[in-house]
Amino acid sequence: MRPPARGTARLLYGAGLAAALMLPAAAPAQAEPSSPTPAALPAADGKKGQELPGMPTVLDPRAEAVVCTPASQERAKKQDWSRQRLDLDRLHQHSTGAGVTVALISTGVDPEAAGLKGRVTARGEAADDCVGQGTFLAGLIAGTGSTTPRLAGVAPGAKILALRGTDRRGQPDAALVTAAVRAATAGKADVIAVAVALPRKDVALTRAVAEARKAGAVVVAAATPDPPSRGSGDEIPSRTYWPAGEPGVLAVADMLPAGARPDGALPTEGIDLAAPGAGVVSGGPRGKGHYLGGGVAVATAYAAGAAAAVRATHPDDPSDAVTRRLTATAYPADLPQLDAYAAVTTVLGAAGAPAAGAERAAEPVAVRDTSDTDRATGRATLFVLLGSAGVLSLLWAGFALTRARARGWRPAGTGTTEG
């Protein structure tokens, strides 16, 4: 009867080996972020019910005619992960950014957009937001959420000064960015958010940023452009982008729910802060529907909104103190992660770090779990490791038993006795 037992052991061994090979492959498949599609994008936290049209960052430069981003016909059903991560519901109990003006340098902002009406001043062609990204970002900074208050921006009491830093298709231009920074300074903006990143240093832009900071503005800029959607596949070397590389500018990068930068993010040095930049919900310049957007510009908008909330709460703080507050209160990680609530409520020491034993301006805040996705990923990883270990143990036991029986081994007490 040994042949059937040997056959069964071999069958179990083969099945276990297949399971062991499949288990490690299953975890990365769940952890991979969803890639954007032209039609609808799923929420970054993987939960159902948030499939919305994607908000582009730029229109096709090769198209003969400029076709603006159409109105979304979909409405978000719930608050997205990014607002929960930044604890905006509690933040708004302490600061809404009232009395603060944020200059947004992007593709423009529609002054009549839902949730922004009556609080946007658009200079020149900035009122024409064909791409839609600028209006999307303005909603993250200072939108009221319109009929969905839980989708309000970080500083819904702030005002927006809309300025163009791109052409109508969304392509950044150094001369336009420079002119926009100067216009923001002339307009006495408290915070200047530069949602574009330029690959080369520009002397005129350097001077404009220095003048803005001298005038007391907090300058927040995208640390990198968004990675190209098409390319040769060659690795892009690390480099500095502008004006994020200018002294005193808060350079912001995007992060996923788990806290890591997205796959394919452009490498750079000198990132000061990371903020949510995937699966984020906001409105657009046409209609009352919602979109899903992501990227470094989205993270920059969130950081700019947090700066506005801080300026409203600490109006006497100079711009450098506001920047230091945002970085000192960030959640500690490889890249410090923006914590808007802590930035507003934490009592800082003289050196800019939280004072020893100091209490928050309101109630104390414990360090929260970064997101449900973090916990899900941790559980999945633990399951894979334990499952793999168990399967490998069974494999080894089955293999050893098969070999031992093939050589005539018997357990103690089961052999024949000689009289």
How is the secondary structure organized here?
Elements: H1 2-31, E1 40-41, E2 52-53, H2 81-85, H3 88-91, E3 101-106, E4 120-122, H4 133-142, E5 159-164, H5 174-186, E6 191-194, H6 203-214, E7 218-222, E8 250-255, E9 273-276, E10 280-283, E11 290-293, H7 296-313, H8 319-328, H9 340-345, H10 372-406
Parallel strand pairs: 3-5, 3-6, 4-5, 6-7, 7-8, 8-9
Antiparallel strand pairs: 1-2, 10-11
Helix pairs in contact: 1-10, 4-7, 5-6, 7-8
CATH architecture of the largest domain: 3-Layer(aba) Sandwich
CATH topology of the largest domain: Rossmann fold
CATH level-4 homologous superfamily of the largest domain: Peptidase S8/S53 domain
Secondary-structure element sequence?
HEEHHEEHEHEHEEEEEHHHH
State the helix count: 10
Shape assignment: globular
Low-pLDDT runs of 5+ residues are 1-38, 356-378, 380-384, 415-419
What is the CATH C level class of the largest domain, in words?
Alpha Beta
Radius of gyration (Å): 27 Å
InterPro entries: Peptidase_S8/S53_dom, Peptidase_S8/S53_dom_sf, Peptidase_S8_subtilisin-like, Peptidase_S8_subtilisin-rel
GO biological process, one term: proteolysis
Domain Peptidase S8/S53: 97-333
Signal peptide: 1-31
Structure characterization notes:
The chain crosses the membrane at residues 380-401. The chain folds into two domains: 2-32 and 373-406; 40-352, 3-Layer(aba) Sandwich (Rossmann fold). It contains ten helices and eleven strands. It has helices spanning 2-31, 81-85, 88-91, 133-142, 174-186, 203-214, 296-313, 319-328, 340-345, 372-406; strands at 40-41, 52-53, 101-106, 120-122, 159-164, 191-194, 218-222, 250-255, 273-276, 280-283, 290-293. Strands 4-5-3-6-7-8-9 form a seven-stranded parallel sheet, sandwiched between helices. A two-stranded antiparallel sheet has the order 1-2. Helix 1 (2-31) runs antiparallel to helix 10 (372-406). The radius of gyration is 27 Å and the shape is globular. The two termini are 26 Å apart.
